[in-house]
Design a protein that fits this description.
single chain; 52 residues; mainly alpha; 3 helices; 65% helix; elongated
Length: 52
Amino acid sequence: MNQEISDQPNIDLAKIKSNIASVNDLPISSHSAEFEKIHKQLQQALTNLDGV
């Protein structure tokens, strides 16, 4: 396996989807922080796909 690929963290897309779905259950005041966290996870997933 390519060492560069194996150094990247595993991204669990099912977990990200679950996090997105659960935002509605959180207080509105915490939505922004949760969206930021999800955004970072999605960016990492795209980075892993692109091999950047």
